Amino acid sequence: METNPPQEEEKVVIPPYRSSECHNKSFQVMNALREQNQLCDVLLKAGGNEIPAHRVVLASSSPYFLAMFTGELSESRQTVVTMREIDSHALELLVQYVYTAEIEVTEDNVQVRNLPNCLFSCMSLLFVFRVLVKQNYR
Questions:
Q1: Among 2, 7, 19, 55, which one is most buried in terms of CB atoms within 10 A?
Q2: How far apart are CA 6 and CA 107, in angstroms?
Q3: 42-81, pLDDT tens digit by residue?
């Protein structure tokens, strides 16, 4: 009587579960915390405005902030960071976009000066601005 060697069971590969709803809800909560100045660990100052924020949220959304808060720059140890050479309104728009993934583009804020490309939270925001400018403000 011949016995067959045990066959390996075929494994079923199940893709990981992803929940964009959970991700969106997390950012909604983080933005609400920011708006209430809770658990914020950095205050960004530009012009006369002060914008409370969470370093981890900024760093996860922008290579500029990632370098600022994780590198050897003095800002990595400061709780108040003065943002020089940037329009305070532009910085507010950027931080709002980082937390909400939404931005209202108007003729006024498209004209905002002094927002270096390195501060854009991600290339998608830069792309949105360029497309909307071409479509609406020729």
A1: 55
A2: 71
A3: 999 998 899 999 999 999 988 888 989 998 989 999 999 9
pTM of the predicted structure, to 2 decimals: 0.72
d(CA 54, CA 34): 7
Lowest mean pLDDT among 21-25, 38-42, 86-90, 121-125: 121-125
Residues 42, 53: contact at Cβ < 8 Å? yes
Task: Pick one of 3.40.190.290, 3.30.710.10, 3.40.462.20, 3.20.20.80 as the CATH number of 21-136.
Answer: 3.30.710.10
Q: What is the pLDDT of residues 82-122, one digit of tens each?
A: 988 777 887 888 889 889 988 777 766 655 544 555 455 45
Residues 6+ apart with CB under 8 A from 71: none
**The CA-based dihedral angle spanning residues 11, 17, 18, 22, taken in that order and rounded to the nearest 10 degrees:** -160
The total number of residues written for the chain in this structure: 138
How far is Cα 45 from Cα 19, in angstroms, rounded to an integer?
Answer: 35
Task: Map out the domains of the chain as residue ranges.
Answer: 21-136
